[in-house]
Amino acid sequence: MQVQSIKQLDPWRDPKADLWRGVEVESVPLMATPLPMQPTEYIREKWKEKPYGQTPSVDVQVVRDEREIAFHLSWFSGSKHGKDAAAIALPVKGNPILVMMGSRTDPIHFLHWRNDGKPVRSTFSEGIGSTRPGAEVLPGAEAHWSDGRWRLVITRALGRDAEVAPLIPGQPTKVGFAIWNGANDERAGLKAFSIDWKELHL
Length: 202
Prior knowledge:
The protein is an all-beta fold. It has one helix and 16 strands. The longest helix is centred in the N-terminal third of the chain and has 6 residues, at 41-46.
């Protein structure tokens, strides 16, 4: 996945901006998180016969200037629902297993957007069930729903820190994605996600 270099990020914060039409789109396949990996027996039993994580893919575009990066995500939602959500996963160090939400030695940094008017959350994970607030990376988001699709731009500062995934121009990294369908009451581990990392070239 190639990150396009631009001069100034501000005009790109609008997910409806015509500028995005000139950026390469990569469709990332998604799948439901495995039911045996859900954190409690109650959830595993409740959802045993109930479909979830059926968002088939998310279309991704990425640009950056010298200070910030912007991810443009677009996916089919069907209805504008207050509990829809999306997340971007980035490895902090090592080679974390995405489906396991990282580990103590190989953690993952997440940017998590929800359609509830609250700011994007920066979170840090060292494995399933360990997610906690992450470092400040000046995250932001703007979203628009129309014609059955969400269009979302999530931004964060470039750079690195002890608990921040490094995003350094010229240094490749990896990225993953997750989508929650609020109309289906999806939350926490009940989601569609990219089962493996995508290469991200800055």
